Amino acid sequence: MTALTNPELAPALDEALGARVRWLDQGAFYQSDRPLCLVPEQLYQELAMLQPFQQQPVLSLTLEDPMRPDEGPVEVELTVVGAHSGDSADIYLPWGYAQQLMEEHFHAVSCDSIRFYVRDNRKIEELYERVKGWFQPVDIQGGDTLYSYALTIYDEQYRGTVSALQQNIRRSQYTIPVLLVLVVLAGALVSFLAVRSARRSYALMRVQGLGRRGLLATVMAELAIPAAGGCVLSAAVWRQIWPLVLFLGCYLLGGLAAAIRPVLERPAAILRQQE
Amino acid sequence: MAILTAEQVSFSYQGKHETVHAVKELSYAFDCGELYAVVGKSGSGKTTLLSLLAGLELPTQGQVLFQGESTAQMDCDKYRRNHAAVIYQSYNLFPQLTAEENVMYPLLLQKMGKQDASQRAREAISRVGLDSAHLRRYPSHLSGGEQQRVAIARALAIRCEVILADEPTGNLDEENTEKITDILLGIAHEQDRCVILVTHDLSIAARADRVLELRDGRLQNPEA
């Protein structure tokens, strides 16, 4: 079955191309929205024999949507207003009626073009899966659907962006552990330099009676407080907490390595060096 | 019973090329109420002996006893917090703390409240002849003699039984040397403390109650 708005769209009906159409009632067939049809001449003869008293035979059809097998068939009756002879065996309907039929019984909307935006780019693959039952892909192979319209989805930019993002994410997964190690090393280096300049003070604290644990706590507090202050400021600006907590932890881990040294050193030896 | 006793104390350490025997089989008993001067040439083991008596080092042989308890068995950090104070030639004050805060520091380590610590610090500072104007000054704004007095006040404040001074007058002029020696003598005699002083200055040694001479790590005139 084919729906038309004018005969030029179907070579089998175009009299300019030599097609022959015998109208029983032409009227305004192509602009009509009534249940009319043009049938092949052979089919017309069969109908005329079955309905000899009808000036215009009625063609009864049972239509089913193969894409929705769970919905039942639809019975339609079309008045034959003409017969065509030639190579085509199609039954032609007016476009207006065909639209109504499709909308009422098959939930289909006809249009010349469709343009839509996918709100959620993550559903592009789902869209592909669903439309390939309705549209042909734009390639020679064709697809699985019975329908003959093609759909092109312009997602090149999206896919390019996603691909680039995915690459960056993969790179980050390798880069992050390296960065954390570098933070630990930076913490150790900065702490080592800070602790080195205060060795004498730490030795003096030990002479005054500060225990090893107390000294370790003192050194770590001196390293942690400025770093923590920086992290709080950064958190206020960037509104990220957990990455900064991780950074602080790695920094202090490096600092701990540097803080161990003054705890283990002999204070008398250090003060003697300074003397 | 002597407050501090060294029993056959020896101390050795690994030098660059050889083992150095800094102190060799030293035995001596130190009592409260006396000022002891430890004299000897450079490298004779005086400073090492002081470190051993302060619990900053542990003897490789023998033992140091404080009130009968060996320093090898006790918490030496606690010993120095509560019972022994060390004064150095270069004063060793915390440059970022005022004079008062320097004296308060060991008291805060004793878990004393800030107000009580401040009160005791002021008393100690006045006892060494400094006035309240010195309390808020940083060490860089004090003379050498004043800094050493603050160091002595720090030792006085914790009310320890033993004060160990390593060349406390080494960087001072004659006048200040005299004053510091007077203060240390006063602490030993009037406050019944055991003051052990390492010095090169024979004039100070002459004023001490007892003189210990070390030569090559050995005590030359043991009385114990």
Layout of helices and strands:
The complex is a heterodimer of chains A (275) and B (224).
Chain A: E1 2-4, E2 20-23, E3 36-40, H1 41-50, E4 58-63, E5 74-85, E6 92-94, H2 95-106, H3 124-131, H4 156-197, H5 199-208, H6 212-238, H7 242-264, H8 267-274
Parallel strand pairs in A: 1-6, 3-5
Antiparallel strand pairs in A: 2-5, 4-5
Chain B: E1 4-14, E2 19-30, E3 34-40, H1 46-54, E4 61-66, E5 69-70, H2 76-82, E6 84-87, H3 99-109, H4 114-127, H5 144-157, E7 162-166, H6 174-190, E8 194-198, H7 202-207, E9 210-215, E10 218-219
Parallel strand pairs in B: 3-8, 3-9, 6-7, 7-8
Antiparallel strand pairs in B: 1-2, 1-4, 4-5, 9-10
Helix pairs in contact in B: 3-4, 3-5, 4-5, 5-6
Can you walk me through this structure?
The complex is a heterodimer of chains A (275) and B (224). Chain A has 275 residues and is an alpha/beta fold. Chain A contains 8 helices and 6 strands. Chain A has 2 domains: 109 residues, no CATH class; 105 residues, no CATH class. Helices cover 51% and strands 12% of the residues of chain A. In chain A, the strands form 2 sheets. In chain A, strands 2, 3, 4 and 5 form a 4-stranded mixed sheet that branches. Chain B has 2 domains: 148 residues, 3-Layer(aba) Sandwich (Rossmann fold); 65 residues, no CATH class. Helices cover 35% and strands 27% of the residues of chain B. In chain B, β4 and β5 form a beta hairpin. In chain B, α4 crosses α5. In chain B, 50% of the residues are buried. The model of chain B has no long low-confidence stretch (mean pLDDT 92). Chains A and B meet through α5 and α8 of A and α1, α2 and α3 of B.
